[in-house]
Design a protein that fits this description.
six-stranded mixed beta sheet, 6 strands, rod-shaped, Rossmann fold, 11% strand
Amino acid sequence: MYYLIDGYNLLFFQLQPGENLQKQRDLLIEKLAKYAERLKWNVMIVFDSQYQCTEGSLNHFKNLIVCFTRYNETADEFIVNKVRHEKKPSQVTVVTSDQKLSWYCRIESAQTMSVREFTNQLSRQYKNKQKAEIKPLKKGSVSTLQKRTIDRTRENAKKEAQEKENNERENPGKENPKRENLLKNPKNSVESCFQAYLKIFEENSHCEISQKGSKGLSQKLQKDDLPPIESDFQRWLRIFGSGKEDEE
């Protein structure tokens, strides 16, 4: 379908008293170009320039063509001649509330529509287009962004686990090189060093507890055979005390 619009007829239908005519015309063209592009409509809007000494002009804005008539030619005359020279005038819809222009266009087999009907249809179809493009997520579904975040997190976890496994295989019984560099570098902050020592302490404590737990499964200890309870401070001295003596 091809829409042929009587420009000032549509503009005066929307124009409010006291508004600048040229400014509102530019806003109408901008809005119409936006809507026509989104809806894939082919639209031509025609404005009178009969009192200006110009040859007329045609300006293309994607799906919209803006026409200013030449000197001594009205928009009505241009529209009727345009319809008359169309190969399939029945596929042309002339948008105007001018009854005389509508009558002439219907004689040429064109369809007609008032500016009120056109603006209502334009707004309705534009809103329906927007609703169709915004599809709500189903309950329990995951958006594309969430799926990418989950996949990225899983990949990073796999890489870290693989690096840790390779490091333990290449350096059995040795501490993580990054942690050793952290402890040996005097420029590191006290807090960062403390965190590194605390991590080593927790890992050693966890290993000891797990080893004792596995032994307990195979043989039950008697009450008198239980080792003395070791405080966290004593365990700390046992783990790190040898290193301090070596440094001295």
